[in-house]
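The record is kept unedited without comment:

——
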Amino acid sequence: MYPNNEIEQLIIRYLTGDASSNDILLISDWLRENKENEKIFMQIKEYWNADVSSTVDIDYNKAYNTLSAKIKENETKRPARKISLRYAGVAAAMFIGIFIYLGFFREAQVIQNYSYISGNAVSQISLPDGTGILLNKNTTLTYNDSFGEDGRHVSLEGEAFFEVTKDTEKPFTVDLNGTKIKVLGTSFNVRNRLDESITSAVLVEGSIRFESPNQTVLLNPNQQLMYTKATSEINVSDADMETSIAWKENLIRYKSLTFGEVAEMLEKHYDVTIKVNDEHLCNVKVTGAFDANLDIEQILNIMKNNIKFKWRKTNDSHYVVSK
């Protein structure tokens, strides 16, 4: 329950365009507080629609005076319901603003967005439909409170493994900043980091449809898709499941990569810079796996036992590797 003066101040800020996102959420909470508020708004809407065109500028003082008079006249005929005229008049102006902008009353309620941010740890979440998601480090997953109504839509920045609950009437869509994945019920991995040039998807079970602005590709189990953002090129190949989703088991796993490629992978994982000074060393092929709980220096020490090299630390996040 909000005091009238507090709501009025929020409404004034909304009408003048000075409302913050928090102000709008508070107004939305008030609208959803009880059915009586909705009835007041719907009644005011009827008065407004009779006299005001949404294509003209709104004089809120005039609107308040006109609507107050009409409500007062009407309530004299229907004394069973009492409405605070000053409060209803200001509320009318707010409703008009929202109604004109969004088109109908129900849309006046602000959409609530939910974001899960994994930070520096792998995190597991469950969506309202029962879909399970494992978020890799530094990953953000977002959805809103319309999830499950007409469909199931989420947005992903980072990497996540999905186990989607099957619902043939409500496909599950993952938005990937210009591309998307659509599924009914399946298990798959998606990597979509903003600082990387490639978006990738690996299908474990079921089927998924990858959609870009000019192509649509259907993946089968054990296939991997690589989408190059700059050229919109799509490549599909057999997936190496051991390396593709090793992060789920908290492992860093690589197979037949050059030392230079492994260094780049470690740079992203640990947010450090690794400069390899020797070209021959950079091109040596390596295969291995590490516990992701190890720090970068522990990994470098393990690797140098198999590949002869030296490393030194030049500052908190910069390493130089040489023969």
